[in-house]
Structure formats: C-alpha cells, structure tokens
Amino acid sequence: MQFAKYHGLGNDFILIDNRHSPDPCLTPEQAVQWCDRHFGIGADGVIFALPGQGDTDYTMRIFNSDGSEPEMCGNGIRCLARFIAELERQSAGVSRSSYRIHTLAGVITPKLEADGQITVDMGLPRLLAQEIPTTLAAPEEKVINQPLTVAGQTWTVTCVSMGNPHCITFVDDVAAVPLEAVGPQFEHHAAFPQRTNTEFIQVVDRGYLKMRVWERGAGITLACGTGACAALVAGVLTDHCDRRAIVELPGGCLTIEWLDDQRLSMTGPATFVFSGCA
C-alpha cells in the first residue's frame, strides 16, 4: 500500500490515498502498528483522504497512534491539503488552491498560499460545557477560569471545543510543566467524559503565546493546530491576549486569528517527508 509521510511543525502523519472508498482502508489496530516508531513507519496518526460528502471535495478521517479517532486535527488537515494537491498534480497535472473537506467536526476549508504556507478556516469555537463536553459547569454555561484539581494541584482552566475538546491553563513557565506526569491525568479526568486535549500556555505578550500540549490519544506532540486555536480563544476570553497572535509550539509557530465573524483562522506549514510502500 502506498503512503506519504508529512508533518506540520513536527506533528507527523501517514497520509493514504483512500479516494476509492468511503471507508478507511486500515483498521484502528493496523494504524497503531503503522504509527509505532520502533516497529512501524512512525507517526502521531494516520490520515485517510476519502471521497467528499455532499458539496465537499474530500473527506478526512484520522486514527491516532493509540487507535482512537479524533473529530479533527489542525496540523493534520494542513498536511492533508498538501497531500491532496500533490495527488491532483500527479493525476491531472494541475491542482486547486483551496478545498472543502468534510470532517467529523464539520466542513473545514484549507487554502494553499503562494508562499508555501496553508491557511485554514477552522470554523467557530464552541464554548458551552455541553459542547466540549465537560461537567465543570452547567450544560449551557461557559467554562472560563474554573478550578480543576489534577495531580494534587488546583489549576485554573478554560475549556473550548474546536470540534474536539480542549482544556487550557495559563502558567508562568511552560517548560516547567511535568507534561508526561500531568497530561494523562488531565486527559482521563472524570470532568471530561470524552477525554480532552490539554494546553499549557505561557503569555510572552498579548500577541505571542508559548504552548505545550498533551493530545488526547497521542500524548506529547510537537504541535497541535486545534489546540493553538483553542488557546487563542481562551486567551481572549481571559484577557491574556489579543484576537491575533503567534502561538509558538515546540515544533514551530502558527499564526492564529479570531476573526470578526467569530471564525478561527490558522496559518502554518505542512512539509513532505518521504513516501513509500508498506
């Protein structure tokens, strides 16, 4: 089976041309084997480019390295857009610069920019507790600056859904957070019935944030696009940052903007690594 490997700021994925079928050609268990960094290809997840649904061009499905299926992945959809453009060039000699992609979080629209970056319309953030979901507030209330006890410490958290759940906490020094120890405890906390991604954010200034992330189903990753969007929203809601900021992750930087129409825009790279047959 042919595959290609891409990464978005070090958040790496195996991409598979699955346009012949509406169902992924690998099982979650096979995806786990492919993602193994010692016995497989190695990746944070496997992404499938499937036929579009309704008025969309393509459908995105993704299996995490633990076999779970997230609703969406910001770095992954940039990689998928680059992968699709290459597939179209190979088959037709030309490719489009923008795609409408169906995901479990809704329709997402990435645009390939002339400078090589990819800008993605990430849609609307969801802020009510029932939308995230979390039990930290009443179903129709927002979770902003709420206390949460994890690993014997009380953290102040704000929760945002970008189609997938995020728990954001602001800290003085992201490098000092024992991510391997506290990340799993956040992810599996009883307050998050569908588990959660967790972002730890250090405010450098109102236009620049530093972030480390524990991703639901993948653990520590070098970047998380939906997490960067959620972090900016949380920063605005708690008056830590402006509506446009650079978010620095261990793998590099993303530009995130919360637009006047309340949609989130994310701009960042997607890089081809290699292709092969497995």
Question: Brief overview, please?
Answer:
With 278 residues, the protein is α+β, with helices and mostly antiparallel strands. Helix content is 18%, strand content 39%.
CATH superfamily placement of the largest domain: Diaminopimelate Epimerase, Chain A, domain 1
Number of helices: 4
* CA(first)-CA(last) distance: 5 Å
User: Which architecture of the largest domain would the CATH scheme give at its second level?
Assistant: Roll
What composes the largest sheet? Answer: 17 strands, mixed
Mean pLDDT: 97
Key phrases:
278 residues; alpha+beta; Diaminopimelate Epimerase, Chain A, domain 1; 2 domains; globular
Structure in words:
The chain is of the alpha+beta class and 278 residues long. It folds into two domains: 2-122 and 269-277, Roll (Diaminopimelate Epimerase, Chain A, domain 1); 129-262, Diaminopimelate Epimerase, Chain A, domain 1. Helices cover 18% and strands 39% of the residues. The longest helix is centred in the N-terminal third of the chain and has 19 residues, at 74-92.
Question: Secondary-structure blueprint of this entry?
Answer:
Blueprint: E1 2-8, E2 11-17, H1 28-35, E3 45-51, E4 58-64, H2 74-92, E5 101-103, E6 106-112, E7 118-123, E8 146-150, E9 153-161, E10 165-170, H3 179-187, E11 197-205, E12 208-215, E13 219-221, H4 225-237, E14 244-249, E15 252-258, E16 264-268, E17 271-277
Parallel strand pairs: 2-3, 4-5, 10-11, 12-14
Antiparallel strand pairs: 1-2, 1-17, 3-4, 5-6, 6-7, 7-16, 8-9, 9-10, 11-12, 12-13, 14-15, 15-16
